[in-house]
C-alpha cells in the first residue's frame, strides 16, 4: 500500500477523537520513528509503500491511539528541555510547565544566592519524586558543578530514570524511599555513595492533583499515567509539600533554595506554608498558560 494512501486512512480513522492537525502530526512522528522517514521524503517520493508487516505495526499503533494512549508511551520516548527521555507507564510524561521550573533553577544557579555564588563552587541538588528523572537529568546537563541526588518511591520510575541518566550521560545518585516516611534526609538509605550534610537546592514536583480535580483531567491522562504520580487526597492536598518543607528546614544549607511545582489553585496556600515555616524571599510564578505553577523560597 502506498504510504500516502495509508496516511489518508490513518487521519480519517483518528478524526473522531483528534483534530486533523494533531492526527497528522502523530502520523509524521511515527513515520520518523518507525520508518526513519521525514515528511519531505514522502513529498519527494510519493510512490513509497508500506509492506504488509509494516501495515500490521501501523494498524496496532492506530488502534492504541484510538484508545487515547498517549503518543509518548507508544513511541516510548519524549523530549524535555532539549533532551530525549524514555517514558513508559511507570512515569509521568514530563510537561512543558516543568521545563519552566528547570529553567528557573538553572538561572538561579548562575546568580548570587545569599552570600555565595552557586556557580563558583560545587553544589548539591536533591530532586524529590524524580519520575522519569527529567528534572534531575536536565539540571545535571546544565549545571556542571552540581552533585545530584534523586528520590522516588516507585521501582519502575527509578529504573526508567536510571536508564535516562545513562542515555543522557550524566551521573545521578538515585535513592528509593517513601518521602512521607523520612524525618531527616541525612538518614536516607544509600548503599554506595555518601550523602552531603545538607543540600544547596531541593526541588520537587510531587503529586498534587486533588481527587475533586479529576473531572478536569483528560481521559488519556487518567487512563494511562500513573496515579501514584498524580493524585492526593482532597482533605490533605499539601501533604507532600508540608513534609518536604519540614525536611528542607533541617537539610537545606543556610540560604539554600527550595523549588516546587504546584497545584495552580493552591498558590496562596503555598506562600503561607513557606512563610509560616520561616522561608524568605518567597516567590510565586505563573507558567506559560498564566497559571500559578511554581514557587521558590530561601532558607
Ligand atoms: C508529579 S510526578 C513528577 C515526576 C517528575 N519529577 C516530573 O516532573 O515529571 C511525582 C513523582 O513522585 C513519586 N512519588 C509519589 N509518592 C511518593 C512518595 N511517597 N515518596 C517518594 N516519591 C513519591 C511518583 O512515583 C512520581 O514519580
Report what the structure shows.
It is a single chain. The protein has 2 domains: 3-67; 81-298, Vaccinia Virus protein VP39 (Rossmann fold), CATH 3.40.50.150. The chain is 41% helix and 21% strand. The strands form 4 sheets. It has a 7-stranded mixed sheet, with helices on both faces. Strands 1-2 form a two-stranded antiparallel sheet. The chain has a two-stranded antiparallel sheet with strand order 3-4. It has 299 residues and is α/β, with parallel strands linked by helices. The termini are far apart. It has helices at 3-14, 20-35, 39-44, 52-66, 71-75, 96-110, 134-142, 155-167, 219-224, 227-230, 239-251, 267-276, and strands at 77-80, 83-86, 112-113, 116-117, 123-128, 146-152, 172-176, 199-204, 209-210, 231-232, 252-261, 280-286, 292-298. Bound molecules: S-adenosylmethionine (SAM). S-adenosylmethionine (SAM) is lined by residues 92, 94, 98, 129-132, 134-135, 151-154, 157, 178-180, 205-207, 228-229.
Amino acid at each position: 500500500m502506498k504510504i500516502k494512501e495509508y496516511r489518508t486512512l490513518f487521519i480519517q480513522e483518528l478524526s473522531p477523537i483528534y483534530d486533523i492537525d494533531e492526527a497528522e502530526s502523530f502520523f509524521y512522528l511515527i513515520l520518523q520513528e518507525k520508518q526513519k522517514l521525514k515528511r519531505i521524503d514522502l513529498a519527494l517520493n510519493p510512490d513509497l509503500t508500506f509492506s504488509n508487516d509494516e501495515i500490521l505495526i501501523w494498524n496496532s499503533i492506530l488502534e492504541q491511539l484510538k484508545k487515547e494512549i498517549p503518543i509518548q508511551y507508544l513511541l516510548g520516548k519524549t523530549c524535555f528541555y532539549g533532551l530525549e527521555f524514555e517514558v513508559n507507564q511507570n512515569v509521568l510524561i514530563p510537561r512543558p510547565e516543568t521545563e519552566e521550573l528547570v529553567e528557573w533553577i538553572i538561572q538561579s544557579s548562575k546568580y548570587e544566592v545569599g552570600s555565595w555564588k552557586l556557580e563558583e563552587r560545587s553544589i548539591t541538588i536533591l530532586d524529590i519524586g524524580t519520575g522519569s528523572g527529567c528534572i534531575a537529568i536536565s539540571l545535571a546537563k546544565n549545571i556542571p558543578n552540581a552533585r545530584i541526588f534523586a528520590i522516588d518511591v516507585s521501582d519502575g520510575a527509578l529504573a526508567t530514570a536510571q536508564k535516562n541518566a545513562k542515555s543522557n550521560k550524566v551521573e545521578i545518585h538515585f535513592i528509593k524511599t517513601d518521602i512521607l516516611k523520612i524525618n531527616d534526609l541525612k538518614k536516607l538509605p544509600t548503599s554506595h555513595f555518601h550523602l552531603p550534610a545538607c543540600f544547596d537546592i531541593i526541588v520537587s514536583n510531587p503529586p498534587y492533583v486533588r481527587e475533586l480535580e479529576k473531572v478536569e483531567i483528560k481521559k488519556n491522562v487518567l487512563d494511562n499515567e500513573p496515579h501514584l504520580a498524580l493524585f492526593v487526597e482532597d482533605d490533605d492536598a499539601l501533604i507532600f509539600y508540608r513534609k518536604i518543607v519540614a525536611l528542607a528546614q533541617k537539610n537545606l544549607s543556610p540560604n539554600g533554595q527550595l523549588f516546587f511545582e504546584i497545584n495552580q489553585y493552591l498558590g496562596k496556600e503555598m506562600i503561607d506554608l513557606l512563610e509560616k515555616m520561616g522561608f524568605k524571599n518567597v516567590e510565586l510564578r505563573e507558567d506559560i498558560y498564566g497559571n500559578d505553577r511554581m514557587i521558590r523560597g530561601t532558607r
